[in-house]
């Protein structure tokens, strides 16, 4: 009796299976992609909208005071005395003292008394190192005998802006701040500095400045 072996699958069947795999694989992959892409989108954390106070915890710059705020020309808690008052007769070119002298130790911070624009920062004859500010009301304030200047021409300043530090430059017998107010920029157009400040609500005690 003759025994026959089971025949091996023919080549055409193998080719058919290979073609079926090539056709179904992209479909299967496409199904996976269709299912997984929306899931990935849902799983990804949504971008948080910008919060209106996103920088609330960052250190904020100190805001400028309003233009109508006025202050004293020396920093807080400065001990001083008026060594030469305004308007007394003397050998000054104008025949009188054109400002008020605050005797203070060297290196005291000198501040703008209000809002305006710096128009002069340089040595100025007997005034030594001086700063002149054109105030918003049209007057000019002058700070003289400074040891150092910390502003520049054209700079906008406000009340309490540091202009420099007290010293004894120019014609001076000791450290002090010469504070002068002028109706125009010209020498000799001065007005009483303490009255000017008082008209803007700033009153200086006899011997102590405090804020």
Strand content: 15-25%
Provide the residue-averaged pLDDT: 78
Which structural class do the helices and strands define? alpha+beta
Distance between the termini: 126 Å
Summed up, the helix count is: 2
* Proportion in helices: 10-25%
Radius of gyration from the alpha-carbon trace, in angstroms: 41 Å
Q: In CATH, what is the class of the domain at 81-199?
A: Mainly Beta
Provide the succession of SSEs.
Answer: HEEEEEEEEEEH
Instruction: Please count the beta strands (DSSP E, at least 2 residues each).
Output: 10
| Oligomeric state, counting identical vs distinct chains | single chain
> Poorly predicted ranges (pLDDT <50, ≥5 residues)?
1-10, 23-59
CATH topology of the domain at 81-199, anyone?
A: Glucose Permease (Domain IIA)
CATH architecture of the domain at 81-199: Distorted Sandwich
At the fourth CATH level, what is the homologous superfamily of the domain at 81-199? Glucose Permease (Domain IIA)
Largest sheet: 10 strands, antiparallel
Based on CA inertia axes, which overall geometry fits? globular
Any descriptors?
Glucose Permease (Domain IIA), 10 strands, globular, 211 residues, alpha+beta, 2 helices, disordered N terminus
Could you give the topology of this structure?
Layout: H1 11-43, E1 81-84, E2 100-103, E3 109-111, E4 116-123, E5 129-135, E6 140-149, E7 156-157, E8 162-166, E9 176-182, E10 190-191, H2 193-199
Antiparallel strand pairs: 1-2, 2-9, 3-8, 4-5, 4-7, 5-6, 6-8, 6-9, 9-10
